């Protein structure tokens, strides 16, 4: 008999699970932190590890970019608050980079389990490198998972965030490798009348279902 999933992973389109947690900036309730802004919630396996240090530093260095695009950051690992504080301090002293965003001390693994960040094939005690992009309405819009030994691509995280925000604002889709300034895809018509209007439009028509425009 098939066993039910104890901790099913949240999916794209789901409401982001709410939680209250201890973080490096004080206790936080996620729904309050998320209110009115986009949030990138991301996990790392452990403090004082090399790949994680490069990743967290990458997020910290992009703080102005994320702030300019109404996006807050929130990190997580299954470490104590004292370990987090010591690591933040050590990285700042050695490199001059300060992790100003909150980092969740998830010792009881509550949040990691809530978001499917624990994947036993990789580790039962360390969170994989998960990325959740959550919109201001609290809906999960994008999920990325990386294994423990591979760092994320910051350029792709930024590109994906801008694509999501553009698609939401203009009710369009973004094609392969889309970047700001590129043409976007206009949703296909759903009626014959809509098809006739499209044929008379000034859209760039590859075919009736694939039409592009500049914003």
Strands side by side in the biggest sheet: 5-4-3-6-7
Radius of gyration using CA atoms only = 20 Å
The arrangement of helices and strands along the chain is EEHEHHEHEHEEHEHEE
Biggest sheet architecture: 5 strands, mixed
Task: Tell me about this structure.
The chain contains 7 helices and 10 strands. The chain has 215 residues and is α+β, with helices and mostly antiparallel strands. 26% of the residues are buried. The strands form 3 sheets. It has a 5-stranded mixed sheet. Strands 8-10-9 form a 3-stranded antiparallel sheet, with no helix packed on it. The longest helix is centred in the last third of the chain and has 17 residues, at 154-170. Residues 1-6 have low confidence and may be disordered. It is 32% helix and 20% strand.
Write the layout of secondary structure elements.
Layout: E1 20-21, E2 28-29, H1 30-34, E3 38-43, H2 50-61, H3 63-68, E4 71-77, H4 81-95, E5 103-105, H5 110-114, E6 129-134, E7 140-146, H6 154-170, E8 184-186, H7 192-200, E9 204-207, E10 210-213
Parallel strand pairs: 3-4, 4-5
Antiparallel strand pairs: 1-2, 3-6, 6-7, 8-10, 9-10
Keywords:
5-stranded mixed sheet, disordered N terminus, alpha+beta, 7 helices, 20% strand, 32% helix, 3-stranded antiparallel sheet, elongated, 215 residues, single chain, 10 strands
In short:
Helices cover 32% and strands 20% of the residues.
